[in-house]
Amino acid sequence: MTETMTAITSQSDSAAAGLELGTAVRERFNGAAPDAVVVFASAQHDYSTLLEALAAGCGTQVIVGSSSAGEFTNRSRGEGFVSLLALRSTTMKFAVGVGRRLSEDPAKSAAAVLTTFQGLDGGRMPYRAALVMSDALAGHTDAVVEHLTVASGGNYSFFGGGAGDDGRFHKTHVFAGTEALSDAVVALEMLSMHPIGVGVAHGWVPTRSGFRVTEADGLRLIGLNGAPAVAAFEDHAKATGQTFDLADPLPFFLHNVLGIKGGNDYRLRVPLGVNPDGSIACAAAVPTGSIVYIMETDKAAAVLAAERATRVALEALGGRRPAAALVFDCVATRLRLGQSFDDELKACAALLEPAGFVGCNTYGQIARAEGQFGGFHNCTAVVCVLPE
Questions:
Q1: Measuring CA to CA, which residue among 105, 86, 90 is closest to residue 27?
Q2: CA distances from 19 to 13, 46, 54 (A)
Q3: CA dihedral for 161, 118, 82, 342, sign (positive or negative)
Q4: Does one domain contain both 37 and 182?
């Protein structure tokens, strides 16, 4: 049996916010400490102060999470908040893994994360998953997810995202216990007697023929079909009657992201800006040699994608009732949808009732689950449902 508690606070004082949440957790579990806590916090907070107060209040340092760019539960959402999921279970076990210096050696960081995992050699709990939060601004999130998958023998489902900082794109943090770390990746291992469901979906479709990525360097998309990358977007804007302001391209980019063709689906990448040489700064790397498409969507498609991800995650429970869920979507999705982002969250809540959920807007989403397109995504709904 798994007991859960979801909570959110708009308290701006970090010590008070941590104490408020920690005290609420203790009350929910009749004075007992939780087995694990997941927490997401706005960049407005002093993370060390928040985490220390939370740990003292709830009685555990088995804490994982990150800074974020919008926080929510099934009941409320906002910016500048702290959201939390607390867990107590007789059928699940938890462990915290930390990998530092992510930008220097993602393989080494992934290996460090796995040193604390208890399910690598099997054991009596057959279902294995991990919440993974990465400093996306350090790069290499795609690589670290791949290394985690290979090093764990493909026996874990991974889900989570890249830490945010309220859309500033300056510095992001991941949480492990009472530590707030940059240039790092953290994970909460979840071993379970019952299936854990992970669903991933987006509502974007290609608008025209694809482009070959002829040159790229890290987060810079330099050439498409041998021409400066910006040319493809300029041509697309003209063909579709959209405004594309090189001095302020983000409004255009939020509605015209890139999709990397892979199998029967597309991994999305959000362009962020135009460099003087005509290259495009992206939120995540676009591999040289890949085929990419300019993608489009609408508000209804975003809601349907969130519903689809939630349904897939629920179906993976094998008929068991959900105890709680973790939900992630991109900060770009929130910015594009505005108040309509509430419709996406309401769709998830309706499917999960009476279970609650906690989540945040991230700088990219992580999903690696059997039978689904995986890796590091942008503008994609990722839902993990935990069984009762």
A1: 86
A2: 10, 13, 5
A3: positive
A4: yes
Question: How far is CA 299 from each of CA 10, 70, 227, 253, 376, rounded to the nearest angstrom?
Answer: 27, 18, 32, 16, 22
Q: Using DSSP bridges, classify how beta strands 211-217 and 205-206 pair: parallel, antiparallel or unpaired.
A: unpaired
Q: CB neighbours of 198 closer than 8 A, spacing ≥ 6?
A: 129, 157, 159, 312, 313, 316, 367, 369, 372, 382, 383, 384, 385
Res 372: pLDDT: 58
Q: Which two tokens stand for residue 330?
A: 């991109």
Helix, strand, coil tally for the chain in percent (to 5):
25, 35, 35
Residue 236 sits in a domain whose CATH number is 2.40.10
Considering the entire predicted model, what is its pTM? 0.93
Residue 44: both structure tokens together: 């407005």
Block residue for tokens 């509430």: 342
Q: Are residues 133 and 180 in the same domain?
A: yes
Q: Given 243, 270, 296, which residue is the final one in a domain?
A: 296
Assess whether the previous peptide bond of 354 is cis (omega < 30° from 0). yes
| For the chain, percent of residues with pLDDT exceeding 70 | 99
pLDDT in tens, 34-89: 999 999 999 999 999 999 999 999 999 999 999 999 999 999 999 999 999 999 99
How many domains does the chain divide into? 2
Q: Domain limits at 130?
A: 2-201+301-387
